[in-house]
Specification:
With 471 residues, the chain is of the alpha/beta class. The protein has 17 helices and eleven strands.
Amino acid sequence: MKKLVEAYSPEDFRKRGHDLIDELANHFENTLQNKNNKTIHWNQPKDEHIFWKEFLNNGDKKNLFNTIIAHSIHVHNPKYIGHQVTPTLPITALSALVSASLNNGMAVYEMGVAASAIERIVTDYLCTKVGFTTASNGILTSGGTLANLTALLTARKAKVATNVWAKGNTNSLGIMVSEEAHYCVDRAARIMGLGDAGIIKIPSTPNFNMNIELLEEYYKKAKDKGIEIFAIVGSAPSTSTGIFDDLEAIATFSKQKNIWFHVDGAHGGAAIFSKTYKHTVKGIEKADSIVIDGHKMMMMPALTTALLFKDGNTSHATFSQKADYLLEESKEEDWYNIAKRTFECTKTMASIHWYTILKTYGEEIFDEYVTTLYDLGQQFAEMVTATPNLEIAIQPASNIVCFRYVSPKLSEKETNTLNEKIRQTLLEKEEFYIVQTKLKGKHYLRVTIMNPFTTKAHLQQLLERVLQQVN
């Protein structure tokens, strides 16, 4: 018992906790104020693996946490403009600590009394902000991928006559989605057994959003092949370009065909809080289900995602399953037994992140965050357009901007190769972190401005670094 007594010692935890909070506070200060020029620790996978294997055997355990920090991407650095990962609010490190310490599993009410009630308050609040009625409700789950899959399972249960959950697939089913949608929608459809034929990908317009004019044609083609379309997915926005589908038009189409309308708003759903950019998700209130990630545009640690249903009753029918030791039959809407409505049995107390931010700072902080980042996206696009030999893929609608270096002296293949090289060189220099994407065969540098303390000066420095690679 000696090791256990030592490991559970409140005094040992108190000392380690104070030391770690100091370390993290220093980390926030150094990164947010750009005192640390390194945004990413770049190393080859093999070499990094060797380092950590050696550290486990011979490293000083007193340096464990600060070594992990040093070897990780610093998302709080204003020069982190890569993936859609938010610089978390420092207070959410504390709510995460509470969740990890209490470890309330939340499968059933008695295992997560406070967190279950808080989750209902948070999801009801989000439903109201979206514009749903009192018939709506939602759940929190671990990430957009799981939330999108759950939404499509609910759609199938609600719209397909056959009880697939009980009897299995007896006919060909399908969904409609833009070719620019996030890959997790495709993955969810395949997990559900829809296969290639059941994923009806609608070509995008030159603006990279779903081509609404093709919906009727593609729906009819699928129907002629014997495929029953039960859902259509709108992107708000697409991951690659940050461009929003026309949600109002999709809503009209879904109503005409009596199919489920789901909105993947993992990234852009938070625009419901922005007075300036709320128009980007116009029509979202007409969806049957909506996904919004807290860990993307709402400053929370991964993973926490809201899945909202216009008709809350539909989510209770998704997973009809008997587990006598855990789930009891109920004649009323027992929203508090969350395992009945999610894949997850045990899950973290994610609701306290949302609640803590709302209680401490109010919803205004979400408006400030989204609006600031979307404004920066517009400003950066203007800077790129004004710079010779640089071009944007499309005028941004959010904080995602795709651009590339071009020259009349280069072929398309050479242009692609050069932009790949520019990105890799930036990565290895460790000052900026950006990513890349391919749009209709063209290679673009992709910037997602996630840090509200990123300035035009930082973005100008990025453009200078890009041009230095070719001059």
